């Protein structure tokens, strides 16, 4: 709840609402006259004596407005209360109990969801002859509970499967106790949203009802004010404030409640939270490496949060030569996916590139506007996603994905289909799947369709972000074989990102090891595997079984990498390193330095600040 | 197919429930509706009419509820909805028949316009989130969403009909002239503009907010990022990839929305004295014409059900997953 109030919307709504509640509470103090006192001259224009003028019957409109606040908020509050109670009872009760009870209650909810509320209220109210507010409130509540019940039911159904509820049931607690002490507290924000929604519904419905003269028209509310104003020809006699004020007040209270609900929505669905401001283009850095197809220069990227910018990639420079297979390995959270998205300028808010350049065949993609960048995307560099499961638009066919891509880059449709058919065949997918929707494809098929799409425009480079992670081992192997084919037959450069170091060893030309947003070691694949220099790389290799050879004991690396927001004063691996040099490694960030021909490593054990311990320390650590 | 059958089943159950509620209300409410009516009309109702009313509401009847319920169904299925007291001796059916086209036209047209406009603004407001113009649409939509229809109708009536005289103060069409030809169409537009405007503007906010929320959830889906990675034009990504998926939940929200629009139409018609169902409902309420009220509720319930069913059919057309029975 507190978090919801941090939303700008909720705050604004709360302030407006507080003013109205204050007016309602202090009505006797604020209102200059009694709302029913009709001793003034009728239809007086606004003046200091009568701020909003007087009615046909000679009542002070401002006093009626003030007192009407009380009556109207009362209706809203009570309707909210009753409708929410009904919704909670039916929704949570049905959802928790399940079985036939739930079926009946759910059917009932669906019926009430569809039956039009106001007409039902009108004809029901028309039968009621007692002149009191309560029956109207009850009838409105009775027609307004269904939406809440539906939302609460589906939430209860998902809560019921959660561990803490299951545990409570196993212990043998009574259903009532579980609902009251475990389920309800977890749905407070939904229930609050429901209450607010029902209150708005109540105020609007009651106003409509009173406007046509149903209910107690002698009560003082904004709705009855409108009824009297209309029936006594307020507009025709020019007393437009008499109409304007109560209606505007209703709309304003409704808006305030709506804003409060909006804040709660943002709390329960983080995707709705206000967008962050657009950042200027990143500061360019460096020049493209000679002979490289893709050259990343000092990329710094991260995510903007309410608490400030977080850095996920801390100045990474990498290069890929034509036809080369570059493997990037690192544990989850090391910034490798962020780097891939950043390289193609595809990071979406709140993600942002703060600094650096990404030269693709000499063109800095990050210095372009999105519109300028589009022609290069997919034509020169395509991107296979980590979650290709959801990469296809569920409502259009595979064929449409092909054609959309072709059209955006000027490839004739007939040729595109021809190419796609051939590629699908290559990946062992029958051509008729061109007319399939993604829900008709298996996980492995989706991944291969995406691979086929990635080759459609014959790009020079494909970025692959964990393309095999969610797949089972057999499918994973199939995909790897097809990737080898792409590499061998088409001569495309591939950047392959994975947390699975063992996957890279045999297929990569070069491997880069990422840790906490930095590249800690980089070199030819065989060399990295045979002679890992960085203690982190050594740890990584020890934690995977070799492809062949004897069984051996595997080791993990204890500890966690530093958080995204952390400012580094030394080596990011310091806290977990078994070979760390106190007073050296925690004092300066190690630079990536050459060790031999093509091998680079960022570690104080290899040069730079005078080595306190010899590199043999690593050997001992083994 | 399975989806369709499921929808038909829900349609039938809900229809039965609505009709049963319609049967129960006069019998469950305290007091005697016929006596109230007789008192109100002070002997202007014939004894045969009173007898018919008593039968209809199950008063002084020794029949059990069961038999009354069967009679009720027989009457509905044969179209015998009773005699209107307000428009005596016209039957309730014929009174309803005259007013239905007006309301259906108004609700249909305003729903289509508000849905399209609100959805379109919602899409763009979500896509351009973070910019002032786009974010400002939220409080505006919230305000419109909680504006009482009838109040907004009054304001429009005062400004454009009373003060400026651009539009007529009341009615649905010019009373003279045959209901044909261009002139008649012009007169329809002349009378219908303000009611239509009221409904479109006040119901647009809801569609806008619904679409904006759906869109914000969809924008972070992988298929949108994948479309961007393929270098597709921005408009195509926004509409064909994001909005095309984000609009699907709007069809399920239709059930709620159409009920609100109809409620709004009833009150709007009253303000503009527009000769639709809302206007005769008002006449029925003020003169306690219970048979007419019941018939109107019956009609509105069935109309809402029909509209929902149409929304479900459209849903089948736009979502392949529903089409394939998933």
Describe this structure in words.
The complex is a heterodimer of chains A (622) and B (326). By secondary structure, chain A is of the alpha/beta class. Chain A has helices spanning 2-5, 8-25, 27-30, 61-97, 99-114, 117-127, 133-143, 146-160, 163-171, 175-183, 188-211, 222-231, 240-268, 336-343, 370-373, 398-408, 413-426, 443-455, 473-490, 501-505, 525-530, 535-542, 616-621, and strands at 294-305, 308-320, 325-329, 351-360, 363-364, 381-384, 461-465, 493-498, 510-515, 518-524, 593-594, 600-601. Chain A has a domain at 2-30 and 59-272: MetI-like fold (Orthogonal Bundle), CATH 1.10.3720. Chain A is built from 23 helices and 12 strands. Chain A is elongated. The model of chain A is unreliable at 609-622 (pLDDT under 50). Chain B has helices at residues 2-28, 33-41, 47-57, 65-77, 92-127, 132-145, 149-163, 181-219, 222-229, 234-246, 248-252, 254-272, 277-286, 290-318, 320-323. Chain B is globular, with a radius of gyration of 24 Å. At the A-B interface, helix 5, helix 6, helix 11, helix 13 and helix 15 of A face helix 1, helix 6, helix 7, helix 8 and helix 9 of B.
Q: Please tally the helical runs of chain B, counting DSSP H or I stretches of 4 or more residues.
A: 15
Largest sheet of chain B: none
Q: What is the helix/strand order of chain B?
A: HHHHHHHHHHHHHHH
Structural class of chain B: mainly alpha
Using only C-alpha atoms, the radius of gyration of chain A works out to: 34 Å
Query: Which fold name is given in CATH as the topology of the domain at 100-287 in chain B?
Result: MetI-like fold
Inertia-based shape of chain A: elongated
Shape of chain B: globular
Count of alpha and pi helical runs of chain A: 23
CATH architecture of the domain at 100-287 in chain B: Orthogonal Bundle
| CATH first level of the domain at 2-30 and 59-272 in chain A | Mainly Alpha
Low-confidence stretches of chain A: 609-622
Model regions low in confidence, pLDDT < 50 over at least 5 residues of chain B = none
Euclidean distance between termini CA atoms of chain A: 51 Å
Strand content of chain A: 5-15%
The average pLDDT of chain A is: 84
Sheet with most strands: strand arrangement of chain A: 6-7-8-3-9-10-12-11
Topology, number of strands of chain B: 0
CATH-level-2 architecture of the domain at 2-30 and 59-272 in chain A: Orthogonal Bundle
